[in-house]
């Protein structure tokens, strides 16, 4: 993949400003909204079953994030997912905490099977649980035993590619090394910094941004890689600004700053994408 | 209007520290709470129908914001609205996304008709939808076709004034040019900066602040103009601090900083209010 | 108490990274998650009754905060509380707004009586209401008439100690002077700055951090004092960084920064704990 193709994806988001319907958790929802605005897209949040069909109909993409799912929002995700699928909108499924509870695993599987998302994005433990593989998920973070490393990269990439084939969609597994596959093409992205896991919401923000990249682009694989690389590059930009007494609070602010200022040219320069 | 009258309104908020009951959306609720604390008032959030009557009874104002409405919170808004109206509290209605879904438009109209808010604050698309005018609302932002501009200012102001007369309350339509009318008096406020629309929540924060201004003041029109001008002046203060790699994340922080430090004298100096 | 014991408590949190289940309000939940991550622990939020038992089972502590309680989350708190009690997990009850509504007072009492929390943390008005004492609570802040001062410290400390004995748990009443008692040992902590009450969530963040301190330690009284002193010391660190146009927005960022960088040695140096 050429790095200029990534720049084109980011530029398209800024040029077309997709409206993204987010049904997401109440922990990081403000960060998701500000991340979408920062990247040049527009967010709208609605999880009431009687509201979601109208709302998703005026959008170009849908983010389904089960981070603080409840009976009502599960019903809302179902009605929004059905409508978005019918309209051919980009749908991103973020199975937050799949493997950590029966309700989360079951809900994520049902959303996956019923509404055929364009993209599943999660950490390795969540994606393993969604795929029925044994997993040592604990909470909303991947367990150390599950994560992709330089040593297991070939095996991890093969696993992600098989899931993408089985699910008929693109899959993005993020962590220290990110892996994206559509079943045919697979790549690793090594942008990002460890500090990103010391604030809440970097995964959620990425899942909220990706429907905008998918809506603005024409190739789901390429758009996903561009979105993942953008978040990683912005994490690096944010980390590089930290000085003196700055800690994770400042890092969070700098990350949104970076999303609002990153250019296609910067992305093309800084993206580290490796075809596998 | 004299600019010293605006200063008096802001000083009264800081002097009396009104307690404001907010039933608002979960996207920007933290910003609303911090905005109220910054301006010298106190927030309390409660949307459970069995809780809201007690809570609103100890407050001086009520903010009804339908940004992430659901069946339960709609019931909560109804019970809070009835109690607040009975007690003569200041009520602000923010019809977020009216026009974007049937549920939002219908809920906003029912709240308007049943509880006679002191003030309706929204963008032009939302207010048009609430008034039954044709609107091209998309999501939670005003459509370009709807917004007040220097060219259509007279016509826009007349429209807002007629709504204020029809609804029997003050109406604030905010955007690049803000228009406030109580049906008799109408003015335009040209503070604020475009960056305010690149973060989520500036409208919601304003709607949360306004019950405090209304509770602290005696003239709803004047109190509303003061609140709208305060937010705009603080947006300008925040924008003027941005340097180097600062983006929308830093702007959001600086905006709360400005709300916490702005003085009546600064407001009187910087407010740009034009009687129409 | 030796200050090195406090340092040991903080170091233990960072070394063991407890997973804390938070059922908390949607106003400050993002700050709670980021505070836990900053201090070296991990948060997971879940309030759906069908989800909470699985989630709390994989955690080491539970935070029950009634700040925006509703029927569903009250049911979730009950099921989570029962499971956590059965598993012997640390449970912290934060009775936000007890005394301000019947539902809040009743819910807090029921949680206290049914699930025997390890620790109750609130402001003096809330704790008085929970204990059935007359209180002039207004909203979510303590009333001026209730707060512990240097003049009433002996009386206030005795009151807190009697509640701790009656409830069979540790009690932390926070304010300008914090009082912690387990019924036998009682101390006052005089860290912290007034600015902490000008942002939302410092109490909620502390209540979210405390299950991590309790899970990482062996002595609930000591762990609580360490957690309370850590928050106060971080408030002072944050305040000391404020310059120029900084206001409450920057203070909030600096507070998270401080939580993410404070060391055991700093805590030992700066903690002001007075045995009573």
Describe the model.
Three copies of one chain form a homotrimer. Chain A has 276 residues and is an alpha/beta fold. Chain A has a single domain (3-275), classed as 3-Layer(aba) Sandwich (UDP-N-acetylmuramoyl-L-alanine:D-glutamate ligase). Helices cover 53% and strands 14% of the residues of chain A. Chain A is built from eleven helices and nine strands. Chain A has helices at 3-16, 29-39, 49-57, 71-87, 102-115, 124-130, 153-167, 202-216, 220-241, 248-261, 264-270, and strands at 19-23, 42-45, 61-65, 90-94, 119-122, 170-173, 178-181, 186-189, 273-275. In chain A, strands 2-1-3-4-5-6-7-8-9 form a nine-stranded mixed sheet, sandwiched between helices. The longest helix of chain A has 22 residues, at 220-241. The N and C termini of chain A lie close together (11 Å). The mean pLDDT of chain A is 96. Chain A binds chain B through residues 19, 26, 29-30, 33-34, 37-38, 42-48, 50-51, 54-55, 58-59, 72, 237, 241, 252-261, and chain B through 25-28, 30-31, 67-71, 97, 100-104, 138-141, 198-201, 245-250, 252-253.
Question: What percent of the residues of chain A sit in helical stretches (DSSP H or I)?
Answer: 40-55%
For the secondary structure, the number of strands of chain A is 9
CATH topology call of chain A: UDP-N-acetylmuramoyl-L-alanine:D-glutamate ligase
CATH architecture group name of chain A = 3-Layer(aba) Sandwich
Radius of gyration of chain A: 17 Å
Assembly type of the shown chains? Answer: homotrimer
**Text of the CATH class of chain A:** Alpha Beta
Contiguous runs where pLDDT drops below 50 for at least 5 residues of chain A: none
The rounded distance between the terminal residues' Cα atoms of chain A is 11 Å
CATH homologous superfamily identity of chain A = Ribokinase
Overall body shape of chain A? globular
Domain count of chain A:
1
Major beta sheet of chain A, specifics?
Answer: 9 strands, mixed
> Helix tally of chain A?
11
Summarize the helix and strand pattern of chain A as letters: HEHEHEHEHEHHEEEHHHHE
Mean pLDDT of chain A: 96
Summing up helix and strand content along with how strands pair, one would put the structural category of chain A as alpha/beta
